[in-house]
Write a structure and sequence with these properties.
It is a single chain. By secondary structure, this protein is an alpha/beta fold. The protein contains nine helices and 15 strands. The strands form two sheets. The protein has an eight-stranded mixed β-sheet with strand order 6-5-4-3-2-1-14-15, with no helix packed on it. The protein has a seven-stranded mixed β-sheet with strand order 7-8-9-10-11-12-13. A hairpin with a 2-residue loop joins β9 and β10. α2 crosses α4 and α4 runs parallel beside α5.
Length: 296
């Protein structure tokens, strides 16, 4: 009996060990993607707005609590491969919505690569033309994907999912300057909101103010990479953000962000995040508050 009991205990131990090794009785968490980013399909019930580090350019990736996705801009032409790496890093296998805020290369340069490699549900761009190879490449990619460009303009709105609402606040009219033609997007989740401004400058800001647009947001993308042509004091006061993000490249030749803008943000007690200093910046909202994490 003693030998039988020992054999039984040994057999039980072997079976238990095999079960553990096979994962049947032990929960193993998969390795986190680079930068501890959570894949789009497992966003954990939060809204994620990721300000991708594309150097002197702009790109924002939005992932809703249910895993719906939106990409606004995609950096310059030399960031095409980087954009595809970001899509893989964040687990993006489909983009429900793509927005090219305006035709400048530092905003749409990587869009063609993204559209060529990832299925896209719909794309918005303003009625602004550019006689450039970059713009032509994006239009060619759109055509090859059998998409039709929808006009980005004030008054368009949709629900990303049951809890996340998107409003396009600009452009409100046609402008000679392509920067003022920028699509301005507000995203609302619960009590929190994000204002993504592209390169919209003072004229577009003034028209949004004059129209009485609800601009208040917890997080604001500083217009035109921190150029003094954007983020007027009146506009900043109306938005009244707690946080601001500046998408800008290190040691850029434009001198962005300008000191006047940094001082303005400081005087309004706005906490500033910058791609050139902190790499990719992710803002996450649970509908009540926004938290940040940065690459460095």
């Amino acid at each position: 009996m003693k030998t039988s009991k020992i054999a039984t205990l040994l057999l039980t131990g072997v079976i238990t060990a095999l079960l553990i090794l096979s994962g049947c009785s032990l929960e193993i968490n998969p390795a986190a993607p680079e930068n501890n980013s959570t894949p789009a399909s497992t966003s954990g019930g939060n809204l994620r707005v990721v300000f991708l580090d594309v150097g002197q350019g702009a790109s924002q990736l939005i992932i809703s609590p249910s895993g719906k996705t939106m990409l606004i801009d995609a950096g310059n032409n030399d960031k095409e491969e980087l954009m595809l790496q970001y899509m893989e890093q964040f687990g993006i296998t489909k983009l429900d919505t793509v927005i090219g805020t305006h035709p400048d290369a530092d905003h749409i340069g990587g869009l063609d690569a993204v559209i060529n490699h990832i299925p896209v549900g719909r794309i918005y761009m303003p009625k602004a033309q550019a006689n450039t190879k970059t713009f032509e490449s994006v239009l060619r990619a759109v055509k090859n994907a059998k998409l039709k460009v929808q006009t980005a303009k004030a008054g368009i709105s949709w629900d990303m999912d049951d809890e996340v609402h998107v409003d396009m606040l600009a452009p409100r009219k046609s402008y000679d300057d392509s920067n003022n033609m920028s699509a301005v997007v507000k995203i609302t989740y619960g009590r929190t909101s994000f204002l993504l401004t592209g390169d919209a400058e003072a004229d577009s800001e003034r028209d949004m103010l004059d129209a009485g647009t609800d601009l208040q947001a917890d997080v604001m993308l500083v217009g035109h990479h921190g150029s003094k042509s954007s983020t007027t004091l009146a506009f900043l006061k109306r938005v009244h953000p707690k946080y601001a993000v500046i998408q800008v490249g290190a040691d850029n030749t434009y001198g962005h962000p300008k000191s006047v803008i940094l001082n303005r943000l400081k005087q309004q007690d706005v906490k500033v995040y910058r791609n050139d200093l902190q790499g990719t910046i992710e803002a996450e909202s649970n509908g009540q508050k926004v938290t940040f994490r940065t690459e460095r």
